[in-house]
Amino acid sequence: MTEFAHIRTHVDENIAVIELHRPDVLNALNRKMVTEIVTAMEIYDRDERVRVIVLTGSGRAFAAGADIDEMANDDSITLELLNQFAEWDRLALIKKPTIAAVHGFALGGGFELALSCDLLFAADTAEFGFPEVNIGVMPGAGGTQRLTKLIGKTKALEWLWTGERMSAKEAYELGIVNRVIAPELLYEETMRFAKKLAKQPPLSVRLIKEAVYKAVDYSLYEGMQFERKNFYLLFSSEDQKEGMTAFIEKRKPRFQGR
Ligand code: CO8
């Protein structure tokens, strides 16, 4: 396996495990880390030993979102030219089953990453949310699309507008999470399920996945193109600079609506 800086990987029987590993910043997703996650997923997707891919976080979070320090000074044109979200489109092309095992925070891009997986197992201490609105932006990697498809427009708007965090139990009740598990058993239970799934006929599992997403995601691509233009646009606003600067300076932001 390739050497990675921000993730750790291993294969246990026929389950590949990818662990986000920037614990000092709650696994905040910088661009290199996203590239590494997608690269590892693609390698395991083609690896004959592997039947299921599990994604998890080290330290006290799954991931607390995109790395705010990295993007605080971006502008709309830089983001358009970087085209970083093309990486996220590749995640949707993974053919094998993917399971997110989430403990602690799964916020912003971290929540989007968990929602990009096929199944989501959560520790009862997990907290999910889209706090982007609190720093003057919005989700950019599928959050507005995937959350709305899962829980409907009315509930999605409330969570996205308020930026409040939902508990694992709330996420379960909303149909976002498959299982809520005691934190000390999260990894073990996820692996047990993954190993059970790995015993199912791989081709059936693969083609069922493909068919289910045809039903769910028919217009996801169009939605995500639209979402990302809006995400880029917000980087022209003063409120984005204010929100992210305030976060970095550990003070309350003053938003002015422009
Ligand atoms: N980016 C950079 N650093 C972060 C982030 C982040 N998203 N989250 C936490 N950290 C850092 C903190 O700055 C802190 O670093 P230091 O020790 O050097 O001060 C360290 O992680 C620990 O964090 P806290 O001390 O703040 O820990 P608390 O337990 O007090 O608070 C919270 C935890 C509530 C999670 C808090 O850290 C927080 O609010 N984080 C930001 C959450 C957020 O706004 N996320 C959304 C980011 S925007 C986004 O995700 C846009 C998605 C676009 C597409 C995705 C592309 C990858």
Automatic annotation (TrEMBL):
The keyword Signal is assigned to this record: no
Known EC number(s)?
Answer: 4.2.1.17
Identify which top EC class this enzyme belongs to. Answer: lyase
Task: Recite the UniProt keywords alphabetically.
Answer: Lyase
Organism domain of life: Bacteria
Could you tell me the Gene Ontology terms of the biological process aspect for this record?
A: fatty acid beta-oxidation
Decide whether keyword Lyase is in the record.
yes
PANTHER family assigned to the protein according to its UniProt record, in alphabetical order: ENOYL-COA HYDRATASE, MITOCHONDRIAL, ENOYL-COA HYDRATASE-RELATED
- Put simply, this protein is called Enoyl-CoA hydratase
